[in-house]
Write a structure and sequence with these properties.
Distance between the termini: 126 Å
Order of helices and strands: HHHEEHEHEEEEEEEEE
CATH superfamily of the largest domain: Mannose-Binding Protein A, subunit A
Largest sheet: 8 strands, mixed
Number of domains: 3
Membrane topology: Single-pass type II membrane protein
Protein name: Si:dkey-26c10.5
CATH class of the largest domain: Alpha Beta
CATH topology of the largest domain: Mannose-Binding Protein A, Chain A
Shape: rod-shaped
GO cellular component, one term: plasma membrane
Number of strands: 12
Number of helices: 5
Structural class: alpha+beta
Subcellular location: Cell membrane
InterPro entries: C-type_lectin-like, C-type_lectin-like/link_sf, C-type_lectin/matrix_domain, CTDL_fold
Mean pLDDT: 73
Helix content: 25-40%
CATH architecture of the largest domain: Roll
């Protein structure tokens, strides 16, 4: 019996020693695994960050490419024009093809013209034949308030047009300087003239509407009162803004912004210019 107890004690000591030996052997292995896990997690975080950055770069490039494609590819004919979206409209010709000026109507039934109410359009200019009478200087000031100046008759076509459309005596933008030279308001010297056979003293000039266009200019005193003819440039400016074509026209009767349709140009028309 004593022998068995001794043997049991020896066995227990051997088992404890073996357990300690296993712990000593397992401890370095566990530390090595822990270090590998930490390293793996750090590498995974770095790779994830790189992937996120690459994704952001790809998205930015895709947006830039889409914008460049939208701004460069325009429809080339009427059929293609009707199929385009507002973001693809990128030229004056495309906007004009989609919505010609004659088709655009302002609110309350007012038509938007390039010159404005009461003005006559001829070639590249707009002309206003007044119903009121002022002296030459007052006439010029009134024309400036309306966005123009007294008319400069630059060729025979304009001379005939004004003569045919006017029935009164009108001030024009021609006067005599201190050097006794006839000069237009734009400081150009008179070259082609249409003087009447009947001449009288004066430093400013009438145009007699409804008479012979080749001989209907009359000098007169600048203080005399008469009707007058104003002139301004006919302007239509198209430009690309926020992927839409905008049409800024002068002389509109009312100020308005009209979205013609969901796939239209945005046309902004402003009066009083």
């Amino acid at each position: 019996m004593y022998v068995k107890f001794c043997n049991f004690g020896v066995y227990a000591d051997e088992k404890a020693a073996a357990s300690k030996q296993q712990q000593k052997q397992a401890s370095p292995a566990s530390a090595d695994v822990y270090r590998k896990v930490i390293l793996y997690r750090r590498l995974s975080a770095v790779l994830l960050l790189i992937c996120v950055l690459l994704l952001a770069v790809l998205l930015a490039l895709a947006v830039k490419l889409s914008e460049a494609k939208s701004s460069q590819e325009c429809p080339t004919n009427a059929v293609d024009v009707e199929r385009t979206t507002a973001g693809e409209v990128c030229s004056r010709s495309v906007c004009e093809a989609m919505y010609p000026p004659g088709r655009i109507q302002a609110p309350n039934g007012h038509a938007c013209s390039e010159c404005g109410r009461g003005w006559l359009k001829f070639e590249d200019s707009c002309y206003f034949l007044s119903q009121t009478r002022l002296n030459w200087l007052q006439s010029r000031e009134q024309c400036k308030k309306m966005g123009g100046d007294l008319v400069v008759i630059s060729n025979e076509r304009v001379q005939r047009f004004l003569t045919q459309n006017g029935l009164m005596m009108y001030w024009i933008g021609l006067s005599r300087s201190d050097s006794q030279q006839w000069t237009w308001i734009n400081n150009t010297v008179l070259m082609n003239s249409y003087w009447s056979d009947t001449r009288q003293d004066g430093d400013c000039v009438f145009l007699n509407g409804g008479s012979k266009p080749r001989k209907n200019w009359y000098p007169n005193q600048c203080a005399a009162v008469s009707h007058y003819i104003c002139q301004k440039t006919r302007r239509t400016l198209w430009r690309r803004i926020s992927q839409h074509c905008r049409d800024f026209r002068s002389g509109c009767e009312v100020s308005f912004v009209s979205l013609v349709s969901f796939t239209s140009c945005t046309l902004s028309s402003f009066g009083g210019l």
